[in-house]
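To whoever picks this up:

The parser on our side crashed when reading a file containing two proteins. I've narrowed it down to the boundary between the first structure block and the second sequence. Both blocks are reproduced below exactly, byte for byte. First block:
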Amino acid sequence: MQVVTLYESNFRSAADTLRQIADEIDKGTYGEIGCAAIALLGDTLHVFGAGVDAEPPSIGMLFSAAHQRLAKSLEQHGKSPDDGSR
């Protein structure tokens, strides 16, 4: 899994960011997408899964992997584990 920062969009606009991600998926930027997971928090929490592998256990594992990746990035002060830095 790769965490991607979207510098070209206003990330504070959820709709604009989702449109940009959809455009990049259509362009093949992220390769073949088997599963996508989105959590939205408005008046209530909504969780969405999409893709050929979007069964509930796959979505749960995807959120878990994303959580671990973000926690690891925080622990390493945003540095990638493969960039040779501590």
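<<boundary where parser fails>>
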Amino acid sequence: MARSTGDSEQVRYCARFNYLCLKFTLITYSTVFWLLGGFVLAVGIYAEVERQKYKTLESAFLAPAILLILLGIIMFLVSFVGVLASLRDNLYLLQAFMYILGICLLIELIGGVMALMFRNQTIDFVNENIRRGIVNYYDDLDFKNIMDFVQKEFKCCGGEDFKDWSENQYHDCSAPGPLACGVPYSCCVTNKVKVTYYSRLILQLPVGSSHFTK
């Protein structure tokens, strides 16, 4: 009888320990993502306020600031439900948290499938908005930083090709400045050369006179 009671106590202790570990893990996970969601939301709001000065992109959903705001709201609300559910041991909130995570995963899967099914339309849509962004490339710092990063990392130039940069008033061939018929430096092929008098002269040439890649 005493042995049976001891085994029962051990089982209850193990169950309680597992429950506390699971609860602590869920609270920690939810709290971290809750705070992260709030931070992403704050950054998105700040970026959107700055973006309103230069409305470059036709579709708001292509703007990085809008994407950050949407992502921040979703992360903040979903994680808040998880924190509240784990703190209050509310079964209904835990179920809601599980269902919301499942719905988010399903939406991501559907979005990926839709992007593959309509990839040609998606590419045309993105290229059109890139061309619109190129018009105000030097005025929209948000778009400029992203475009420079993409062109440097993926070694590309423009949306479809380098000709897209003719949409910009400074790079159009009819422009009077030194950037006419050229492209931004992020489009250019950079080669390591020995620093000599002639190479220093080359480095001092205007950006528009640099070679570019397709």
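After patching the parser it read the second block fine. Helices lie at 2-51, 64-88, 91-117, 119-135, 141-154, 197-203. Residues 2-51 form the longest helix (50 residues).
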